[in-house]
Design brief:
single chain; mainly alpha; Growth Hormone, Chain: A; 74% helix; membrane
């Protein structure tokens, strides 16, 4: 039976809305920095005479950085708290983005892109843990899922800025493109200043007075840490790889990988893929813009369904129907352009369910002590496949062709449907202590000061 408490069932306040907006700055920057490089590379790849391998390394370096930074950020936020790291990681993005303006060779560009990726990756477990631990259960799924929608908003902004700067015709326009990420990052840092620490984290560290102060400030003078349910037992990072939490980590990592590998491949090289499917010139660029919008539409639709439909059914259907769309593309790469765009549209919209659940599931299935580490580890492990996929797409297109490439993407996506059918739990409507617990034993409250 679902219990009621002042945190999980609190009314949605202005504080919650602001926190959700400021927390989503990380994925906005992720979408921005990963997309702006594609626009900039059109110019500097010719200037520097980059090979296909060098272009692949530049494109994949940020993803490799996210792989490294996500786990480090998760471990740090569980150890030192959410508040202090909530702004430090974005300051790093500002510094490294500006440094790109002055880079003189591809090696240093790859290094800076790697460092930017590390900072972006670190923000995910920090921001999602903080948002999860403040947000009422009714809004937790949509708020966390909105992170993915903000990724595509950031990507769209990058394309607009990149196109505007490219039209100036300046030979160093690409430098301004890469450095431009510092502008939104600065605005987000300023907005995040003053965000309070998570009372759940403070309570788990024994800082009861500080936790009570935050509780009264956010939830009202009558609410204290005594109203916060205790999570079962004491867990550590080692529990991510064993017992029931090990199984949960395996599920999250597998479904996340199956979702992100085809999407990054399709999204990062959409013009090349559409060109291989006989959509060239303005048609390919228009198609890429339409696909970007449809990815965002799919996330919005999924946000509306995540509470109504439930996490498990949404995940299964998302993988199934998007995988079938890619399968048909792979089997009939010579189909008329209208059918090709229709199939891409179906994939872009339907895959939104698996995308938003990448941030919902890991935050709901792990307790406060290891929540950041769980999000970080899952994000890191999934980025291995994303980085490899992004690096191999241009080689696959030139080596085995568009049909087999799409069939591989379809196989990975449909594997996600099978794994979700076997492993996906349902956490809709649960309090954090309920969804994160391995047992259903009665929970007691945290001690007061």
């Amino acid at each position: 039976m679902t219990t009621i408490n002042p945190l999980d069932d609190a009314p949605l306040s202005r504080f919650h809305k602001k926190l959700a907006l400021f927390s989503s700055g990380g994925p906005f920057l992720d979408g921005y920095v990963l997309s702006i490089i594609g626009v900039a590379m059109v110019q500097f790849a010719d200037q520097w005479s980059l090979s296909s391998v060098e272009q692949g390394l530049v494109g994949a370096s940020s993803l490799i950085g996210i792989l490294l930074g996500a786990y480090a950020g998760g471990w740090l936020t569980d150890k030192f708290g959410r508040e202090i790291l909530f702004t430090i990681d974005l300051v790093a993005i500002i510094v490294f983005s500006v440094a790109q303006f002055f880079v003189q060779d591809v090696v240093w560009l790859i290094i800076l892109r790697l460092l930017i990726g590390m900072a972006v990756g670190a923000d995910y477990p920090i921001a999602t843990s903080l948002l999860t631990e403040f947000t009422p259960r009714k809004y937790r799924g949509p708020f966390l899922g909105a992170f993915v929608a903000m990724w595509f908003v950031g990507a769209a902004a990058a394309y607009v800025v990149g196109e505007f700067l490219a039209r100036t015709g300046h030979e160093d326009a690409w430098r301004w493109m890469l450095a431009s990420a510092a502008v939104p990052a600065t605005l987000i840092v300023l907005a995040r200043v003053g965000t309070p620490e998570s009372p759940r984290w403070l309570a788990n560290k024994g800082k009861i007075d500080e936790a009570n102060e935050v509780m009264r400030k956010v939830y009202g003078p009558t609410v204290s840490i005594a109203d916060l349910p205790r999570e079962d037992g004491t867990v550590s990072v080692k529990d991510l790889l064993r017992s029931g939490y090990g199984k949960r980590m395996a599920f999250i990592t597998l479904f996340w990988t199956c979702s992100i590998v085809p999407l990054f491949a399709v999204y990062a090289f959409a013009p090349a893929i559409l060109g291989a499917l006989k959509l060239e010139g303005d048609a390919a660029h228009f198609g890429s813009a339409v696909i970007t919008i449809l990815f965002l539409v799919g996330c919005v639709v999924a946000l509306l369904l995540v509470n109504r439909m439930g996490r498990r059914p949404l995940l299964i259907h998302s993988f199934l129907w998007s995988g079938l769309a890619l399968l048909i593309l792979g089997l009939f790469p010579e189909a008329p352009s209208g059918i090709i765009m229709a199939l891409f549209a179906i994939y872009a919209v339907v895959i939104g369910g698996s995308q938003i659940l990448q941030w919902v599931y890991p935050n709901e299935l792990f307790p406060t002590e290891i929540r950041g580490s769980a999000v970080g580890m899952a994000s890191s492990l999934s980025r291995i496949g994303a980085a490899v996929g992004t690096f191999l797409v241009p080689l696959s297109l030139s080596g085995i062709g568009i049909g087999p490439t799409m069939l591989i993407a379809a196989a990975i996506t449909l594997l996600g449907a099978v794994l979700s059918q076997i492993m996906a739990p349902e956490t809709r409507g649960m309090a954090l202590t309920e969804s994160a617990a391995l047992s259903t034993t009665t929970r007691t409250t945290l001690p007061t000061a």
